[in-house]
Amino acid sequence: MLVYKFPIPILIIVFCLVSEICSSQTREDRDNVSVILDSMATFETKVNHLRELLDDGRLNNDGIANIFLQYRDSSLVQEQWNEALLFTNALGGYYIYESINHTKAFGILENYQPYVQHSSDEKQISLFYITYAEAATFMQYYKRSLDILDEGIQFMEKQKDSSLYEFGYAYLKAGENSDKVNKISQSVGYFEKAKKIFAHQKDTLMYLWAQNGLAQLYGKNGLYDRAEKARQEVFERGTAIKEYQVVTMARLAACNEANRKNDMAEELHQIRLALKERSHKSDIQGIVNILTLSYAVSTYARNGIRDTSDLYKRELVSKIGPHINNPFLETYYHLAMSWNALANNQLTQAERYAQKAHEGVKGTLEAQNIMRSELLLSNIYEKMNNLPQSLRHFKNYVRMKDSVNNVTARRRFAFIQAELEAEKKDMEIARQKQDIKILDAQNKEKTYWMIFGGVMLVGGSGFLWLYRNRRFAKKEQELTEKYSQDLLWQQEREKEYIARELHDGVGQQLTLMSKKARDTRQKELLKLSQDTLEEVRMVAKGLLPPALANLGITGAIQQLIYTFDEKYNIIFTLEMDAIDDCFEKQQNVNFYRFVQEAMTNLVKHSQATEVLIEIIKKTDCVKLLITDNGIGFDYNEEHKGQGLGLKTMEKRIQMMCGNVQIRTTKNRGTSINAHIPITNA
Q1: CA torsion 39→45→47→48, rounded to 10°?
Q2: What is the Cα–Cα distance from 173 to 87, expressed in whole angstroms?
Q3: In which band, very low, low, confident or very high, does the pLDDT at 9 lie, cut at 50, 70 and 90?
Q4: H/E element holding 474?
Q5: Are 565 and 603 in contact (CB under 8 A)?
Q6: What is the Cα–Cα distance from 385 to 380, expressed in whole angstroms?
Q7: Do the Cβ atoms of 95 and 101 come closer than 8 Å?
Q8: CA 414 to CA 190: how far, in whole Å?
Q9: Cβ-based neighbour number of residue 603 at 10 Å
Q10: In this structure, is the dihedral angle defined by the CA atoms of residues 550, 552, 556 and 559, taken in order, positive or negative?
Q11: More confident residue, 562 or 57
């Protein structure tokens, strides 16, 4: 849960002031207020008059909100866009945080969306996107919220105002919602961008909210060490600046992780600290209170500590009133009440609350809460001796848990793979910088020789200058070729190192985990560890294919093509002569990598359904032909752009003293021809 910390416009101040106004205002009074406001010439005088009425205590919050809505609609009719936008933002904030009517807030903001382009107030436009996305999030429309945030981020990026609070908050909210739709790499990127902006703005509280979001993301995806490290900063810095609401929310996330790991002692420890820290005042303390109390009631009930669960249940019931229309908080409230009723053997009441929680999360992307409600219903029906219903819900729970574990494993490996790709890009950047240094040195060398040659030319020594210049060009070409070859072999050594680390480090740990799971008969953990081990082995094989050493170049390529054939819905036809005695070891690696890169590019981009690979051994050379019936591409554009893959493929064949031709036409497929001389005859 995040703090909605907007710079407070005049209308928000009005909403805060009216929260204590008596609710006995009559319709006649409101009509009189409208008449007086209509007689005023400027918007500022209208606001001042409303503030005077608020001081008199004559209107309630909803009454003023209705007046604002009338003026918003009137401003739209008169095409007073900035004034209408100010009304809209104030109304959205009121219904989200004061009235807790998210359906109303979303409707008002969505209704205004077509008009936002007419406004010229950049600050209020940014605020609109944030409020609109916040309302969608509370309605659990996570993908819709992401679309809104992306549009808002594009707008704010164009403004280039790094001091704008909404700029960082948009990235923060996008990080949260990207996680909810299973986009872990994008989520990490959004959180890191938010942290960078808030650090620049010296906004420590919002920086910690972004850090807490990052910690929760790591924890949900099984990266517990990273989660703990990120969360520790929230504990330390949040306590130091006395921002206890973010510390409490971090405690609840730690409590949730402990529950997933079945660590009862840690779960109870974290909820005790959360209960202690939530007593401090904060601007979102009402929401923090409800969440903390709900966690406490559930945690103590699950662990059989009924008296403590009952104690916090009474406090929860007394404070839920203003938040009962919040779908997010309502889910945790119903789960807590159900666990407490189950602990007290009030089975009918427990079933009713559990069904409400289940209905509330059904159809949403809140997998953890869906699993909680399924397991809870299974336990309730088991106590009621309704075994068919208990078994049905338990099967739903197990099926979803297996699915979540599989998704988590895939997301974790996708994230690690993305990190490896980022490291690869860093290496490419380092290589480019090295190229620039070499080019600078070459330019200095050329300049020197040009001056020297000019002097020698004047002195009648032009022939010597020409000779040295040609010699330098040859040396330069040799240096470039050697550098390219060294770079490729360095990449192969890096891949070999990473593959060994995955096999000897992560692989051994996963093997031990599988053995322990098998010994303790934890079937779910055994399956997860075995699936994870298999994925690690697949990654290691991609980095350092053992088939090349075990089967030779012919067998390795055959196995490579068969692997692609099994994995993708493409018809691969391989016609290959034995070429094991054609090349030296290093050349075999280059040849294998060339085919591997070609196949990878093909399945990623070509959209082909049929592929033909021919490898034919001639008297003095090996001919390679790869053709597909895919969509093709613009070869010149790819080659001139950032297509390092094509350049690397060509470089590998050149290192084997061969040549390669790539022919492609849009929507007519691609053909790759290579001729490599036999050097090991």
Answers
A1: -120
A2: 23
A3: very low
A4: helix 462-501
A5: no
A6: 9
A7: yes
A8: 17
A9: 18
A10: negative
A11: 562
d(CA 442, CA 374) in angstroms, rounded, equals 69
The answer to whether 545 touches 574, Cβ cutoff 8 Å, is: no
In whole angstroms, what is the distance from residue 477 CA to residue 335 CA? 71
- In this prediction, residue 485 carries a pLDDT of 54
DSSP 239-292: HHTT-HHHHHHHHHHHHHHHHHTT-HHHHHHHHHHHHHHTTS--TTHHHHHHHH
Report how far residue 655's alpha carbon sits from residue 678's, in angstroms, rounded to the nearest whole number. Answer: 13
For residues 286-303, one letter each, b for 16 or more C-beta atoms within 10 angstroms of the residue's C-beta and e for the rest, the string is bbbbbbbbbbbbbbbbbb
**pLDDT confidence tier of residue 431, bands split at 50, 70 and 90:** low
φ and ψ at residue 588, rounded to 5 degrees: -60, -40
The helix or strand, by DSSP H or E, that contains position 673, with its residue range, turns out to be strand 670-677
| Mean pLDDT for the chain overall | 76
pLDDT the model gives residue 488:
54
* Closest listed residue to residue 55, CA positions, set 9, 106, 89, 17: 17
Give the integer Cα–Cα distance in Å for 1 and 630: 47
CB atoms within 10 A of CB 569: 7
Is 319:356 a contact under the CB 8 Å cutoff?
no
Q: How are strands ordered across the β-sheet holding 670-677?
A: 571-576, 610-617, 621-628, 670-677, 659-664
Structural contact between residues 227 and 257, judged by C-beta atoms closer than 8 angstroms:
yes
Q: Which residue is listed with tokens 């401003």?
A: 75
Token reading at 275: 């209960």
> Which residues 6+ apart lie within 8 Å of 196 measured at CB?
none
Torsion of CA 210, 211, 213, 216, to 10 degrees: 180
Q: Among 344-348, 467-471, 500-504, which stretch is predicted with the lowest mean pLDDT?
A: 500-504
**Which pLDDT score is estimated for 626?**
93
Any idea which of 54-68, 377-391, 575-589 has the lowest mean pLDDT? 54-68
At 372, the amino acid letter reads R
Report, as an integer, the average pLDDT of 136-158: 86
Side-chain-facing half-sphere of 245: CA atoms under 13 Å: 18
